[in-house]
Amino acid sequence: MPPLLQPAEPREEKDEAPLSRAALRDQLDRVEEEKRQALLEPGPSWREWWYFSASKWYVGLGLLIVDSWIISSWFQYGSLLAGILALVGAIYLEFLLYEYLYYRPHPERERRRGRPRAVWFHPVEFGRWTPEGAILRAGGTIPGTSDTPTPEEFL
Q1: What is the Cα–Cα distance from 95 to 117, expressed in whole angstroms?
Q2: Is 4 domain-assigned?
Q3: How far is 60 from 67, CA to CA, in rounded Å?
Q4: 153 or 29, higher pLDDT
Q5: Residues with Cβ within 8 Å of residue 135, at least 6 apart in sequence
Q6: CA-based Rg of the chain, rounded to a whole angstrom?
Q7: Residue 57 counted as domain residue
Q8: Read out DSSP for 77-140?
Q9: Can you tell me the distance from the alpha carbon of 122 to that of 96, in angstroms, rounded to the nearest whole number?
Q10: pTM over 0.70
């Protein structure tokens, strides 16, 4: 016959209770502090969040849908060459749209002085839905984009 299970020794809850209460109180104080910090600095607005980060995924998904529609429609017509030409043209136009909305120059790349001019792969200085573009449209200036000389030029 197997040995009978012995009942577990009773835990001393008197010793654990103050420790768990103190740990719980510390955790609640930390949560209260996080809430207070979140209310003081709430972060970007919904509009800023949408334009500066979330819309990129939806625009990309929309462009993918357009590309698949072009491919499927030219498969239906049976013209491979026309389908490839239409897809190349659509991809170029989608690239221009994406650059128009989201182009941000590399921060470490040296910038030219003077007015930026549109080229075939960068139609704007800053994308329309970028923080820098919003600053420029509001009438502000971006550091490093002014036409004034910097002291480093004379050294």
Answers
A1: 18
A2: no
A3: 11
A4: 29
A5: 141, 142
A6: 30
A7: yes
A8: HT-HHHHHHHHHHHHHHHHHHHHHHH----TTSPPPSS-----SS--SSS-TTSHHHHHHHTT-
A9: 7
A10: no
Which residue range(s) make up the domain with 63? 18-106+116-143
Q: Is 11 a domain residue?
A: no
Domain count, the chain: 1
**41-88: per-residue pLDDT in tens?**
878 888 888 888 889 899 999 999 999 999 999 888 888 889 999 999
Residue 85: inside a domain, yes or no? yes
Whole-number pLDDT of residue 63: 94
97's tokens: 């749209």
Give the pLDDT confidence of 107-118 residue by residue, as tens digits: 666 555 555 666
* Token pair in block for residue 85: 């030409």
Distance CA 117, CA 115 (A): 6
Take residue 52 and report the two structure tokens written for it: 């500066």
CA distance 139 to 58: 28
